[in-house]
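Troubleshooting log. The previous structure file for this entry was overwritten by mistake, so regenerating from the original sequence record. Sequence copied from the archived sheet and checked twice against the printout by T.R.
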Amino acid sequence: MSLDYPHNPLLESHLFIPDVEAHAWGDGRLYLYGSFDLQGVQTYCSDVHRVYSSEDLIHWTDHGVVFSLADSTWAKDCGALYAPDCAYRDGWYYLYYCVPDGRCGVAKSQSPTGPFTDVGQLQGVWGIDPTVFIDDDGQAYIYWGQLTWGKIAKLKDNMVEIEPDSVVASLTIEEHEFHEGSSVKKINGKYYFLFADTHRHRDPISGEGRPTSLGYAVSDHPMHGFKYGGIVIDNFGCDPASWNNHGSMECFDGQWYVFYHRSTHGTVNSRHVCMEPIYFNEDGSISEVKQTSSGAGSSIPASAHIPANLACELSGHVRIAGDEASSENLVLSEIQNGDTALFRYLEFCGETNMRLSVNTTAPLRVELYIDGCYYAETAVAPAEGYAETTAAIPALYGCHTVTWRFYCNDAAARINAEALEFH
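Regenerated output below.
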């Protein structure tokens, strides 16, 4: 379903685009280059890359498959295409791609939306998630790596070869908690290196953290001296199995944004692309932002039709997953007693009625919390298929965080929710 207000996820609910590099090429549109997950399939990425673009950050154009493993001259049997990036020079757009064994390649096109023609393997680069940055003096750099280090090399002017003697390891797990997912931008004269960060959510036995955060490091040089700066966003809580994150930063129409992904289906895969506005402090640091349902906008009208898969934080067993009986493609699925779903942020204009579309096989009570405080509740009777339940609420105004908490005494009940709105 296409929505006419800013929202996360950015794309239609059946499209799973993680690992996004966002680029504004100067034509008034924002372009997304990412991997392509399949719905409900517990495998990272498929064998194609697609491109999406928008002029308003609400409505997105699908430019289709722009490159696939079948188009590769050297990696046809590698199984999947991992995170890509794109760079522009002298009339050509260069797509940098990688495969699961860590080898990387380059394809090129005279259009930002392809199709891209393979140039071949990028010799000397071995490690996933390549990203390219071109400095003000025209020198291009490529960044890549996973788990223990992030490496950097200079690219030759042809954009398809590195200068072998220039390779350095600049980020490490010891100093930066670097995991993978390199992305670099130059902002106010400083070089910002964004990456999947393992500072948080440590395993009590191994002590290893989950790379659900996007952290950043800053330097005065594009190849060395990166000092850890902090976390920009953490997607922990988007799904019970959320494991990794990967994204980028880009400025569009004067505003900087961070792009990241969220898992669905109770897996580490089937990841949706999302975005949030970000802000720089006077000292150049970036203030950490929370996951929202409203994405590029400050809020969603509470009176709008709001698909349940816009929930930005979940607790308990509930996850966003498919349900053939729903009209929404994705729903809040497998809800159990005490589970919660949070929507951040909704804008109220005096609405006095809440409406929730639910499919439950047992009596259910749904409590409404506003900014963490109990506000109202409704009872839902079992029914065949999805049914709307409504309840009167005290008039509400302003921008708020909305949380639904579900209670059901039947442990075997099947409970899914597909949409909410207020009137």
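The chain has one helix and 29 strands. Archived copy saved in two places this time.
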